[in-house]
Amino acid sequence: MKRQVSLDEISDGRLYDRHDMVRIGCGGCRGCSDCCHGMGKSAILDPMDVYRLGQGTGLSMDALLADKLELNVVDGIILPNLAMNRENDACGFLNEEGRCSVHPFRPGVCRLFPLGRYYTAESFRYFVQSGECSAPNKTKVRIERWLDQPELVRYEQYIVKWHGLLERAETFVAGEAGEDEIKNLNLFLLRLFFMKPYDLTQDFYEQFEERLELAKTLFQ
């Protein structure tokens, strides 16, 4: 989800790389789950999130959409996001103790918080979102450690490619495409990257690359 604001409005104005130290450490949250409440539709997932949730929960995308995830339009493209419970406006994966029940395989947006990504043409850098985390007395943490993302370099390369595809799709939707063309594009991308099951015993990135090449044919 794009935010039409300047970095100075939402951060300290600085950009960081994976090896940098930033003051975001919160001591394991210490029981706080503020960031898991009231997210609305903002916790948007990417294909790897669905792959890892499938590995961790054993649930298919259809099963996850039953009560844990939902689909919404983001910048003209249909994407899944974490669903909030109607009773307490909390993430559906939050347990009774206020802890994340999928923490080892939590989505990338959760690993990133309270960091954000600032994209350039073929890469991105990180920034700290000011005021997003309510924890006091934060400590410095190296970004790569905070993200706790296996094969981080490979993951970052994947994120750039996924973001690039979304950019192309959003440009198509915002252009002169007709209503039927936009609908067909959305259905194709949704089925290809989210609804079509991944082989959970095989490498995700290789499967993503195959699907990405197929998706690129839409814009040729």
How would you describe this structure in keywords?
220 residues, alpha+beta
Helix-residue proportion: 25-40%
How far apart the termini lie comes to: 25 Å
General form: globular
Low-confidence stretches: none
What summary fits the major beta sheet? 2 strands, antiparallel
Report the average pLDDT across residues.
93
Rg result: 18 Å
Question: Structural class, from secondary structure content?
Answer: alpha+beta
Question: What's the total helix number?
Answer: 8
**H-E string:** HEHHEEHEEEHHHH
Estimate the strand proportion: 5-15%
Describe the structure.
There is one protein chain. By secondary structure, the chain is of the alpha+beta class. Helix content is 39%, strand content 14%. The strands form 3 sheets. It has a two-stranded antiparallel ribbon. A two-stranded antiparallel sheet has the order 2-3. It is globular, with a radius of gyration of 18 Å. The mean pLDDT is 93.
